[in-house]
């Protein structure tokens, strides 16, 4: 067929358009010949040929949700339903975990935090999981073998690393962070497929799953292992981890969901048709839009967002302290006092107006 994309089509030095279009070659050639004002030599225009019909997408199996590719575009970063967490009442499978359950979030101390929401939950969604089999030594000095299943995008803590890394980047021989800082070594890595995905969220952004320290978040960019990236193919790596990026973004939702108010359920328990929390879904869409902008625009907008959300996260941390709680109570008390003063002044003004009006009438 002719090369209508310009000189050098499918040539290494001049790649042009190098795609497999053999099924529609006749239609493409026919349309170009008919529509071009100066068609290439040997090009003849007959009656237009109908466009080739696209191949239909395979239908999901009965009772199965349509799968979204685990590629960072349709992000499905979660744990499998078989994963276990530790609560005050003992171990609990992820499939049985509920909002409000307090789970272990530290490997070096007994720190429990409530699950304030599920960033993504779908009991029938079929996804690929990275299954990491690891060995460790228990308190009795006996070697034990266990496994954890999480999607490629989910963030997992490894030893000698400041921030968690993408689970898909973990290899055999890597050392993970286990309970009481025990030595945990990956001895096998496989890819499996299962139904059911669960992503519980905690205030710290951390959670202990199957005895390993993991993040509540995912890597939102396909090629990003630990740090956020900008530019084509992520060539500009920022000193901002994927963990921090997600944690800053979730600050407004955390403050909504950890507070007690009448509209809490509307913010924290509502998910879209794909199982994403609405705030999480909005963040993914905004990031995809940002990736399509010029690099300068990406840098400016991301910097502004990080500063604004970072300040909000600092306020959140301050308010969680005893001093912060005291300040908040004082502010609320002052606000109530000022409101009552304005109300009394308004009522007094109305009373004076009414009296003056009565006097003028008489």
Short description:
The protein is an alpha+beta fold and 362 residues long.
Structure description:
The radius of gyration is 29 Å and the shape is globular. It has two domains: 1-55, no CATH class; 84-319, Hedgehog/Intein (Hint) domain (Endonuclease - Pi-scei, Chain A, domain 1). The longest helix has 40 residues, at 322-361. It has a four-stranded antiparallel sheet with strand order 6-5-10-9, with no helix packed on it. β7 (154-156) and β8 form a beta hairpin. The relative contact order is 0.10. It has seven helices and 14 strands. It has helices at residues 25-35, 242-249, 251-258, 264-268, 278-291, 295-319, 322-361, and strands spanning 84-87, 90-93, 102-104, 112-114, 117-137, 143-150, 154-156, 165-166, 175-177, 183-201, 206-209, 212-218, 227-230, 236-241. The protein is of the alpha+beta class.
> What is the alpha-carbon Rg in Å?
29 Å
Sheet with most strands: 4 strands, antiparallel
Structure classification: alpha+beta
Question: Strand-residue fraction?
Answer: 25-35%
**Low-confidence parts:** 1-19, 47-74
Q: What's the mean pLDDT score?
A: 76
CATH fold naming of the largest domain:
Endonuclease - Pi-scei, Chain A, domain 1
Indicate the percent of residues in helices.
Answer: 25-40%
Broad CATH class of the largest domain: Mainly Beta
**In CATH terms, what is the architecture of the largest domain?**
Beta Complex
Strand segment tally? 14
Order of strands across the main sheet: 6-5-10-9
Work out the count of structural domains. 2
- The ordered H/E elements are HEEEEEEEEEEEEEEHHHHHH
Q: Judging from the principal axes of the Cα atoms, what is the shape?
A: globular
> CATH H level of the largest domain: which superfamily?
Hedgehog/Intein (Hint) domain
């Amino acid at each position: 067929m002719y090369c209508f994309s310009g000189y050098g089509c499918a040539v290494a030095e001049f790649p042009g358009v190098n795609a497999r279009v053999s099924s529609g070659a006749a239609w493409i050639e026919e349309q170009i010949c008919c529509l071009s004002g100066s068609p290439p030599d040997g090009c003849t225009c007959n009656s237009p040929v109908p466009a080739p019909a696209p191949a239909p997408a395979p239908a999901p199996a009965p009772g199965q949700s349509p799968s979204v590719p685990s590629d960072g575009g349709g992000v499905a970063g979660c744990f499998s339903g078989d994963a276990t967490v530790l609560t005050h009442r003992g171990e609990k499978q992820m499939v049985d975990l509920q909002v409000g359950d307090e789970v272990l979030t530290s490997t070096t101390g007994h720190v429990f935090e409530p699950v304030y929401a599920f960033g993504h939950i779908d009991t029938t969604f079929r996804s690929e999981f990275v299954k990491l089999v690891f060995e460790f030594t228990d308190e009795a000095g006996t070697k034990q073998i266990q496994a954890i299943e999480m999607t490629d995008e989910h963030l997992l803590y490894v030893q000698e690393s400041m921030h968690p890394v993408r689970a898909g980047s973990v290899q055999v021989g890597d050392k993970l962070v286990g309970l009481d800082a025990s030595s945990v070594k990956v001895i096998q890595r496989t890819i499996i497929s299962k139904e059911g995905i669960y992503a519980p969220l905690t205030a710290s952004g951390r959670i202990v799953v199957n005895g390993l320290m993991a993040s509540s978040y995912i890597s939102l960019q396909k090629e990003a292992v630990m740090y956020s990236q900008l530019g084509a193919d992520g060539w500009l790596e920022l000193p901002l981890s994927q963990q921090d990026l997600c944690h800053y973004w979730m600050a407004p939702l955390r403050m909504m969901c950890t507070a007690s108010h009448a509209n809490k359920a509307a913010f924290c328990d509502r998910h879209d048709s794909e199982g994403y929390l609405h705030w999480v879904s909005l963040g993914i869409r905004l990031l995809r839009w940002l990736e399509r902008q010029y690099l300068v625009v990406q840098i400016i907008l991301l910097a502004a967002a990080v500063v604004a959300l970072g300040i909000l996260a600092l306020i959140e941390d301050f308010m969680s302290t005893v001093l912060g709680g005291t300040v908040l109570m004082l502010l609320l008390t002052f606000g109530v006092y000022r409101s009552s003063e304005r109300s009394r002044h308004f009522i007094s003004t109305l009373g004076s107006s009414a009296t003056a009006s009565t006097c003028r009438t008489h």
